[in-house]
Amino acid sequence: MKIAVLKETAAGETRVSASPETVKKFIALGADVSVEAGAGIGASVDDAAYAAAGATVCARAAVLKDADILLGVSGPDPKSLAGVKPGAWLAAGLNPFGERARVDDYAALGIEALAMEFMPRITRAQSMDILSSQSNLSGYKAVLDAAGEYGRAFPMMMTAAGTVSAARAFIMGVGVAGLQAIATARRLGAQVSATDVRSATKEQIESLGAKAIFVEDVKGIEGEGSGGYATEMSDEYKAAQAALVSAHIAKQDIVITTALIPGRPAPRLISDAQIASMRPGSVIVDLAVEQGGNVEGSVAGEVVVKHGVKIVGHRNVPGRLAADTSALFSRNLFNFLSAFWDKETGKPVLDEEIGDAIRLTKDGKVVNARLLG
Ligand code: NAD
């Protein structure tokens, strides 16, 4: 069983899909591990560290040759996989909806592409969930990015020259990233409030010491679909939410938006008029910018200024903390493969529940129900 750790091909991807720690663990399971030279550079892991962990470090062609399992963070460019063994697995974050054409290319290569972001949200798969591990650190980094752009302090400070008032931070979308953003903004000393469409988050917001801002008076809204994900809301709810947010947002200094709906463009939460109501120097971080954005006018990869308000749209926020996010991503992949490791045959065998959920391609065809349905 040969496991190949690929150097990422996506522009700006700094993360790596295996750490020296997980390389050692795969070897302990009986696998051979090859790491493409330079794969860990962006995450501050040098080739020598992989070699010391027992991996063979070599060029791409040698890494791919005879590999049974390819590991990646983002989906590799299919052209860069020439020479891969048919039937090999590719386990990575494959962005199946956003990169649909690529899925066909993976099928044509004859590989079994496994999309880690389709991991079902069930208790036993929690340790394999790349969305959770990466979102957690994105929520943290979003607050630091906001603090870096903000020309004022977060905490209240009483100085001999006078008092600096605390920043007011509003977190929109309280999933994994949002919860971490609340906790981080609180630690930095901001006055924090937050909102979501899932009523279950209200208690979570309050338990972190933040104020919950919720639409209370629109009936028939559940807000929660399968797997704890949000569903798209009714027009009535959207209007009520917009009115509530308008009143609240005008008083905020920092806004972090994290709202996503799987398989759909991100919901629009902040309009240009709402941005105009904020005081100059305020900062909005749009963590959904690569899925279409929660904020009108946010631009992926840029910090734009509208009405004196900075709108931060960094791409690949987890990649801005590549050492930590890579370590967690690597563990997610190890936890996944080791949970299914068959000691007798020395290779992983997936069960139906998880296999069917994450498998995009097999035997030259696209097989995933979410892509075919
Ligand atoms: P997500 O990244 O899909 O979305 C971020 C947040 O935005 C969600 O809380 C969502 O409800 C919210 N949102 C969507 N539309 C909105 C709108 N119009 N206005 C305001 N907010 C909106 O969410 P996530 O981080 O993946 O977490 C979703 C849930 O799944 C959480 O309860 C989380 O704890 C749970 N979860 C479970 C597991 C597991 O059991 N394995 C793993 C990860 C997350």
Automatic annotation (TrEMBL):
<dbReference type="Pfam" id="PF01262">
    <property type="entry name" value="AlaDh_PNT_C"/>
</dbReference>
<feature type="domain" description="Alanine dehydrogenase/pyridine nucleotide transhydrogenase N-terminal">
    <location>
        <begin position="4"/>
        <end position="138"/>
    </location>
</feature>
<dbReference type="InterPro" id="IPR008143">
    <property type="entry name" value="Ala_DH/PNT_CS2"/>
</dbReference>
<dbReference type="GO" id="GO:0008750">
    <property type="term" value="F:proton-translocating NAD(P)+ transhydrogenase activity"/>
</dbReference>
<dbReference type="InterPro" id="IPR036291">
    <property type="entry name" value="NAD(P)-bd_dom_sf"/>
</dbReference>
<comment type="similarity">
    <text>Belongs to the AlaDH/PNT family.</text>
</comment>
<comment type="function">
    <text>The transhydrogenation between NADH and NADP is coupled to respiration and ATP hydrolysis and functions as a proton pump across the membrane.</text>
</comment>
<keyword id="KW-0547">Nucleotide-binding</keyword>
<feature type="domain" description="Alanine dehydrogenase/pyridine nucleotide transhydrogenase NAD(H)-binding">
    <location>
        <begin position="147"/>
        <end position="313"/>
    </location>
</feature>
<dbReference type="Pfam" id="PF05222">
    <property type="entry name" value="AlaDh_PNT_N"/>
</dbReference>
<dbReference type="GO" id="GO:0016491">
    <property type="term" value="F:oxidoreductase activity"/>
</dbReference>
<keyword id="KW-0521">NADP</keyword>
<dbReference type="GO" id="GO:0005886">
    <property type="term" value="C:plasma membrane"/>
</dbReference>
<protein>
    <recommendedName>
        <fullName>NAD(P) transhydrogenase subunit alpha part 1</fullName>
        <ecNumber>7.1.1.1</ecNumber>
    </recommendedName>
</protein>
<dbReference type="GO" id="GO:0006740">
    <property type="term" value="P:NADPH regeneration"/>
</dbReference>
<dbReference type="InterPro" id="IPR007698">
    <property type="entry name" value="AlaDH/PNT_NAD(H)-bd"/>
</dbReference>
<dbReference type="GO" id="GO:0050661">
    <property type="term" value="F:NADP binding"/>
</dbReference>
<keyword id="KW-0520">NAD</keyword>
<keyword id="KW-0560">Oxidoreductase</keyword>
<dbReference type="InterPro" id="IPR007886">
    <property type="entry name" value="AlaDH/PNT_N"/>
</dbReference>
<keyword id="KW-1278">Translocase</keyword>
